[in-house]
Amino acid sequence: MSAAIGRRKRRKLKSEINVVPYIDVMLVLLIIFMVTAPMLTLTFDVDLPNSNAKALESKQDPLIVSVRQDGQLSLKLPDAKEPTAVTAEELQGHLSGIAAQDKDVRVIVAADRAVAYEKVIAAMDVIKRAHVDKEPGWGQPLLLAVLVHLLVALIFIGAWLWSPQRNTDAAAGDPSVEASLALSASEAAAARQALRQSEKLEDLPPPVAEPIPVPEDTIPPPQPIEEPRPQDAPTPQQQQAQERVAQPDTKDQDAVSALAISQEKAKQEQEAKRRQEQIDLTERKRQEEAEQKLRLAKQQEADAKKKQAEQERLAADKAEAEKQKKIADIRARREQAEKEAKLAEQKLRQVAAARNAAGTAAAGASGAAQPAAGGGGSSDDLSAKYAAAIQAKVLAQWVRPDSVPLGQRCQITINQLPGGTVRSATVSAGCPFDEAGKRSIEAAVLNAQPLPYRGFEQVFARTINFTFTAQDR
């Protein structure tokens, strides 16, 4: 019995409207309209007269809008050879005027690869503001979509209004009868029909008394029988029990309705709670995924920074190693150059010493010969002037080091060409200057060239031993 009641409880009356047939009819009509619409186009052949005139050629050359790298715009018309530089306002005005005259005008935007994308978009915006956009607008499709939706809505509304009403009244009785409410469709229909018929029944009239039959052989003589009064008329007992008319219990119906409402409300609350829990679970999962992605991004960023720092450290170490290597190479070359310079200096000193010895011998020989020839006494004065001129020229280019005292002398061997061009300047071995002083005096002699030559041709010599005196300028 309980199993039967449980099966009955799972059966519930459905009073919702079934819109599936209406949707099927609508889809069938839509397909019919789509198939028959192209067939309604009526066409017929027309014989046009022939003409010997040539057809007019329509020039559809596009307008070219060029965008330069600096954002400057230029417009090239079909009949123009060169583009014309225009501003955005001038371009919009030109395009608006051309579009008003020719609706089929085409515009091409040309730009170099180096032009920024924002500048090209700005030029396209100017062209759109000039109403040259050839793309179809979305106004007509939107209007057609709205009309289709309105048509579908009207169909559903009409179907709902024309559908029969199905009102289901709650049955009366105590909660123990609640199980009998969940019946099958046929049983529920029979119960509703019986209820409606019971409501239509009227009160039965009082029964009419019938005479009791008497056997014919025992019929007494007729006796006057008093007419029975209506109120005293005997009521014969009914052979069958009258069917009880079910009277609905309003109180039980209200209780059942309240119970159904409370159960429905509890069910809705449980459904809402379940949905909220599902939403919370989904949100929690989304937050966990977001946090996991954030942690992964931070980890990747930290790894990238660590890798970049490692690369920078390796690059710095490599650069430092290359720098140290270059410094070592420079030091080695400098030491090698110093060694070579010392060797060259030593060789030059040896050569200068040999030349000085040869020059001294030659000067002694010439000095002994000149008095015998009866030469004048002006050559000594000219030599002194020549030496003084060289002293002044070299002193003008010399910066005295602090280690060289004033008045100190140093002999320098100068190898020169006619005209005063110095080929080499070497400090003699007996020069008291320190190393810095020697380098400074050699540099001063080289910087002082050309040495004095005009007026001193008589005393000029390719190799001279010049004694320099340390002085302040």
TrEMBL record:
Residues 264-341 have a biased composition (Basic and acidic residues). The chain crosses the membrane at residues 21-44, 142-162. One of its GO terms (cellular component) is plasma membrane. One of its GO terms (biological process) is bacteriocin transport. Gene3D superfamilies: 3.30.1150.10, 3.30.420.270. Keywords: Cell cycle, Cell division, Cell inner membrane, Cell membrane, Membrane, Transmembrane, Transmembrane helix. Residues 194-341 are annotated as: Disordered. Residues 232-248 have a biased composition (Low complexity). This is Uncharacterized protein. Residues 204-225 have a biased composition (Pro residues). It is a single-pass membrane protein. Signal peptide: none annotated. It comes from Knufia peltigerae. The keyword Cell membrane applies. It is found in: Cell membrane. GO terms for molecular function: toxin transmembrane transporter activity. PANTHER family: EXBD MEMBRANE COMPONENT OF PMF-DRIVEN MACROMOLECULE IMPORT SYSTEM, TOL-PAL SYSTEM PROTEIN TOLR. InterPro entries: ExbD (IPR003400), Tol-Pal_TolA (IPR014161), Tol-Pal_TolR (IPR014168). Pfam families: ExbD (PF02472), TonB_2 (PF13103).
